[in-house]
Design goal:
alpha+beta, 9-stranded mixed sheet, 7 helices
């Protein structure tokens, strides 16, 4: 075998070996939360939350917190195929997106805020394609069109295989069948039934407790001292509650001369004590006109979609 061809073959095998953990990169044993368990706030028994959507927002869509008790529903997406659908009583906490192609996943979630016209099912199919390592070309035409509104040309080029796209993919090296490989096979067949992918990705069995001593309604604290908890209704939607103590902010609604901005979009909700789904957090379910405040601190701005290059082959 010629030396150049041998080197190319070894390189592809090495890539396959390095990428094999992607199916377990979102495992329930991975810990990357940014919130920590906290002493629990004391709310009146009859306390009713106001809508989080009533608060001012930044230009990027983050919520500028003020003292009080708030909640809002957010669209969510399955990021861990093959695990149970969340059920009432599963406690969740917020963490960063981790694992295989996390930057692309985060871009899809963040940019979904500015593309509310896109069908949630198409976004989910795109994310299942990404986490399973499926070829972008195996997606339906409508999903590919929507993906072009959520991703940069460079990211789409990467999903199509990049510079290695012309080489035969080395896959299933371990011989282990799992949800990701089953989803990948479905995409390769060209099947367009959303329910078929859902049956593989989202188990209907009850979630299993893997960590004892955590209550479903447990509050966690953000870095600035406010409280937050995540109450999923299913893998498609989560209700997020935020409590900001009266003593945390000054009269101008600031903490140490700065606003507190809460923006869960682009993050993931992680099960605190069960093996239920990991959920990518997308746009709020409701969207209304609101006051916009310019703040200096912008922790997680969405990625803008640049103009397409003249020659996509040059996008690296």
């Amino acid at each position: 075998m010629p030396t150049a061809l041998l080197k190319a073959f070894c390189f592809v095998v090495l890539l396959a070996a390095c990428s094999s953990p992607r199916n377990s990169s979102q495992s329930s044993t991975e810990t990357a939360p940014v919130a920590e368990a906290a002493s629990q706030p004391v709310l009146p028994p009859d306390a009713k939350p106001r809508s989080l959507m009533e608060l001012p927002q930044t230009e990027q869509g983050g919520f500028v917190l003020r003292a009080g008790f708030y909640e809002a529903e957010f669209k969510t997406y399955c990021l861990q195929p093959g695990t149970p659908d969340p059920r009432q009583g599963d406690a969740y906490l917020q963490g960063p997106v981790t694992g295989y192609r996390k930057d692309i996943i985060q871009s899809v979630l963040m940019n979904s805020k500015d593309a509310k016209h896109i069908d949630q099912k198409n976004i989910q199919l795109l994310l299942w394609s990404v986490v399973s390592g499926s070829s972008f070309n195996s997606l339906s035409h409508s999903v590919q069109q929507d993906a072009a509104q959520l991703l940069t040309p460079k990211q789409v080029f990467e999903l199509k295989g990049g510079v290695l796209g012309m080489l035969k993919e080395v896959s299933y090296a371990s011989g282990i069948l799992n949800a990701n490989s089953d989803i990948k096979r479905l995409f390769e067949t060209g099947l367009q039934s959303y329910e078929a992918y859902e049956r593989i990705a989202v188990r209907t069995e009850p979630s299993r407790v893997v960590k004892k001593g955590v209550k479903w309604d447990h509050w966690y604290t953000g870095e600035e001292g406010y409280y937050v908890r995540y109450l999923p209704e299913s893998y498609k939607k989560v209700r997020i509650q935020v409590y900001v103590p009266e003593t945390l902010l000054d009269s101008s609604h600031k903490l140490q001369n700065d606003y507190i901005v809460f923006d869960p979009t682009g993050q993931q909700a992680i099960p605190a004590f069960t093996n239920a789904q990991r959920l990518g957090i997308g746009a709020p379910v409701l969207d209304i006109l609101r006051e916009v405040i310019k703040v200096n601190r912008q922790p997680l701005p969405p990625k803008k979609i640049p103009e397409k290059p003249n020659d996509p082959k040059t996008a690296m």
